[in-house]
């Protein structure tokens, strides 16, 4: 059995996704060999992610649904203690809803109907890391990666990696990405349609602001180089109050387990103009949606390269981000995306690439069984695999060996703590 196969089986077992727990269960596995495979072996994690992407697209082609395929940009973080694990810093961790010590990755996910698969990932390095070459070298971060990049810039790199591996109909993402003029400009240059969320503090124009350079007054000062407009932008938080009742449309955006899911929505022409950096405004569509009781307001900027997007399509794409959150929940709870015990750069990418591969296997199994078992979930597949894979703990000898090893490790930890004290 290859070390890759051993590691993947470890991800599918009913245990934490770290090498100590895997080695207890996988027959003929060895802790040192698995640790070397994940932390030091020079296999190509980028190639694995590319193949996962191609295989995910092939699996999605088996789906009967006619919905378009989206590419969702999102991040996921998890708390990590200590200072030596690559990328760990005090930063906002979404799943705990606060600033905490942890790691954050930027991911791309293919999304079709209710199926979502991760197809790319990049570790976010805060400035306290990129400003410290010695710390980066100790974590074995390659030299060309030791420069600061924002999360939208990492998302652009991920999108570039997908060229030739997969096609998709549109790009989605939360306000972290929708608020980035750089990312929006990149997508428009690539003629990639998008529906990207933006924050309520964004200012938009409801007609073309028509920027112009003021005429230099004779004999006074320098020639103007800063563009101006006779219009003023409107903050989205204020714009929502100007929409009349007859402008809102109530639409069904997908079927739920208890019936159709509906929201009120409106689609407006909008222009976004960065006064300090641009001389040409972005001509986009602005989607505003809310629950039927007026709560949970969402704002999204929409771009379509060929024909204007319709309100039903825009709302459907805006709400597809729900499935990405479910995918992160599955890949963490079922496959231990965040449960590794490694510190280095390459180990992080190796673990994430194999976790993506394992998630694809589960999604492909669900698609293959969609006729006979339409409600088959990721947790269902994990239970089946965990109960059918060979497990050393099912034997008395294997169980005793695991307990003795745990005791040795516990004693070593106690001795280390005593010496430290």
Number of strands: 12
CATH architecture: Alpha-Beta Complex
SS field, number of helical segments: 15
Query: What's the rounded overall pLDDT mean?
Result: 88
Rg: 25 Å
Low-confidence stretches: none
Helical fraction equals 25-40%
How much of the sequence lies in strands comes to 15-25%
Which structural category fits the helices and strands?
A: alpha+beta
What is the domain total for the residues?
A: 1
Reported by name, the CATH topology is Transposase Inhibitor Protein From Tn5, Chain A, domain 1
What oligomeric state is this? single chain
CATH class: Alpha Beta
Q: How many angstroms does the end-to-end distance come to?
A: 43 Å
The backbone outline, from C-alpha atoms, is globular
Largest sheet, strands/sense/barrel: 10 strands, mixed
What does this structure look like?
It is a single chain. This protein is an alpha+beta fold and 421 residues long. It has one domain (42-213, 226-376): Transposase Inhibitor Protein From Tn5, Chain A, domain 1, CATH 3.90.350. It has helices at 3-12, 19-25, 31-39, 45-60, 127-130, 133-138, 151-161, 175-178, 181-189, 236-239, 311-319, 321-333, 345-368, 378-388, 396-420; strands at 70-79, 89-93, 98-112, 115-123, 170-173, 194-197, 203-204, 234-235, 249-256, 259-272, 282-290, 298-303. The strands form two sheets. Strands 1, 2, 3, 4, 5, 6, 9, 10, 11 and 12 form a ten-stranded mixed beta sheet that branches. A two-stranded antiparallel ribbon has the order 7-8. Helix 1 (3-12) packs across helix 13 (345-368).
């Amino acid at each position: 059995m290859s070390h890759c196969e051993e590691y993947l089986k470890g991800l599918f077992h009913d245990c934490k996704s770290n090498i100590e727990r895997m080695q207890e269960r996988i027959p003929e596995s060895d802790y040192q060999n698995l640790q070397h495979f994940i932390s030091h072996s020079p296999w190509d994690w980028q190639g694995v992610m590319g193949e996962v992407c191609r295989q995910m697209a092939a699996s999605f082609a088996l789906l009967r649904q006619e919905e378009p395929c989206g590419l969702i940009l999102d991040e996921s973080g998890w708390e990590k203690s200590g200072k030596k694990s690559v990328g760990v810093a005090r930063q906002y961790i979404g799943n705990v809803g606060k600033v905490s010590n942890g790691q954050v990755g930027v991911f791309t996910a293919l999304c079709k109907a209710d199926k979502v698969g991760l197809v790319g990932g990049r570790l976010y390095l805060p400035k306290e890391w990129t400003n410290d070459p010695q710390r980066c070298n100790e974590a074995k971060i390659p030299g060309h990666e030791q420069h600061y990049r924002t999360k939208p810039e990492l998302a652009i790199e991920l999108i570039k990696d997908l060229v030739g591996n997969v096609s998709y109909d549109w790009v989605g993402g939360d306000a972290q990405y929708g608020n980035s003029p750089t990312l929006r400009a990149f997508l428009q240059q690539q003629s990639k349609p998008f529906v990207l969320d933006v924050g309520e503090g964004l200012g938009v124009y409801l007609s073309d602001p028509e920027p112009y350079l003021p005429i230099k007054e004779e004999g006074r000062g320098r020639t103007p180089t800063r563009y101006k407009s006779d219009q003023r932008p409107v903050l989205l938080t204020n714009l929502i109050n100007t929409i009349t009742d007859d402008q809102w449309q109530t639409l069904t955006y997908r079927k739920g387990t208890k019936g159709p899911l509906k929201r009120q929505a409106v689609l407006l022409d909008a222009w976004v103009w960065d006064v300090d950096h641009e001389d040409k405004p972005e001509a986009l569509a602005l989607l505003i949606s809310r629950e039927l009781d007026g709560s949970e307001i969402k704002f999204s900027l929409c771009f379509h390269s060929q024909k204007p997007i319709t309100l039903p399509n825009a709302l459907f794409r805006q709400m597809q981000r729900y499935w990405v959150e479910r995918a992160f929940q599955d890949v963490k709870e079922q496959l231990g995306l965040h449960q590794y015990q490694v510190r280095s750069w390459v180990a992080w990418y190796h673990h994430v690439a194999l976790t993506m591969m394992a998630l694809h296997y589960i999604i492909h199994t669900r698609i293959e069984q969609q006729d006979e078992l339409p409600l088959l979930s990721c947790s269902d597949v994990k239970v089946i695999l965990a109960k059918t894979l060979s497990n050393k703990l099912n034997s008395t000898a294997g169980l005793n060996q695991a307990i003795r090893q745990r005791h040795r490790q516990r004693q070593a930890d106690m001795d280390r703590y005593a010496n430290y004290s």
